[in-house]
Specification:
Shape: flat
Order of helices and strands: EEHHEEHH
Helix content: 10-25%
Structural class: alpha+beta
Largest sheet: 2 strands, antiparallel
Length: 112
């Protein structure tokens, strides 16, 4: 068997992340415990404010990939918008290439 070169001081308790990776649990240094936050760290520590149009518990639509997305009615501006030439052009289906040949039956010779 292989010799174990680690000593008791090397062994630290392991913390396992949700992804399965292990990381040692270490105690913070004295300098880290006595340090004070900078104004930038304090600013970043503030939680984000919610958008003014945010509504809680709105109906959700679940896509086939499992991701959910809120169901919303179209905006008033979108309902009353005039048609545009470019939008109509993009809405047209692509035409088939003039030299396209559809699938053909494969000719086989029956074996005896």
């Amino acid at each position: 068997p292989k010799r174990n070169f680690s000593t008791q001081e090397d062994l630290r308790p392991q913390w396992e992340y949700s992804c399965g990776r292990q990381s040692p649990i270490i105690q913070p240094t004295t300098a880290a415990r006595l340090a004070s936050n900078s104004s930038r760290i304090d600013l970043l520590a503030q939680p984000k404010t919610q958008h003014r149009l945010y509504t809680e518990n709105r109906p959700m639509y679940e896509f086939s990939c499992g991701r959910s997305s809120p169901v919303e009615a179209p905006a008033k501006g979108a309902k009353s918008a005039a048609e545009r030439e470019r939008t109509n052009q993009l809405a047209q289906a692509k035409s088939v290439h003039p030299e396209f040949q559809g699938s053909r039956e494969v000719q086989t010779v029956p074996s005896e």
